[in-house]
Design brief:
Elements lengths: L5 E9 L5 E10 L4 E9 L22 H17 L3 E3 L1 H15 L2 E4 L2 H11 L9 E3 H9 L3 H9 L3 E4 L5 E4 L3 H9 L10 H16 L5 H7 L2
Parallel strand pairs: 1-5, 3-4, 5-6
Antiparallel strand pairs: 1-2, 2-3, 7-8
Helix pairs in contact: 4-7, 4-8, 6-7
Amino acid sequence: MKNRHYYLIADTETTKRQTVADFGAVLMTKQGEIIEQYGVMVLGHFGKMPLFSDPTAADAEIWSEQSAQRRAKGYDKMLEDGARSIASVAHINQWLARIKAQYNPTLTAYQLSFDLGKCRNTGINLGMFGARFCLLKAAKKVFYPLADYQEFCYDNNLLTKGGKYGRNKIASATADTMAKYLLGIDLEDEPHMALEDARDYEAVILAEILKTKTRNQLMELGQ
C-alpha cells in the first residue's frame, strides 16, 4: 500500500469559538476511489457551543444565525437516525493515526489553512501528515484560467465580488461551483456538512485534477 499514493481530504464545520463541531474525512486513491470515510460530531464542542454564524447575514443565507439553528437541528436528526455519531477528540486522533500508519496519505482540504487552524484549536492532530497541499489553491490554478470555466460561472451567475474594493463581479471558486462545473449545474447545493462536502464535492474536484496532474505537481500547485 505504501507504494501507492493515497489522499486524505479533511473538512470541518465550526463553532462560534473557532473549534470543530463536525469533522469529516475521506481517503481516496489517485483514481478517485473512496477507500474509507469518516464523519463525526465532536464531543464537547457540538451541542456545547453554538455553530458558527454571521450576525450580518440575511436569514436565508447559509451562515445566518437562523441557518445555524436549522443546521444544528439537522445534525441532531442525523444523530438520532445513526447517520452521525459523536466521537471524542481522542477517538478522531486514533482514526487519523491508523490512516497515517496504514496508508501514509497526502493531506488536503479545500481551505487547508482554515481547517488546520480549527483542528488545532480543537486538539485534532492533522499535523501528523507531513505531505499536504491546499485543494482550493490547486483547483484555482487548474480550472480558473479556463475560458469554459469562466463562461460556466457567468452563464449560471456563480459570481462573487472581487477587485480592490469588492465591486467587480468575478467567477466563484468555491467547492460548490467547481463541483457543479464538473458534474453539472443541477448538482444540489453543497450542504456544508463536513463528510458530505469532502466526499461529494471536494473528492470530485481532486479526482478530476489527478487525471492530468501528478502528486508532485499537486504539491506545487497547492502551496
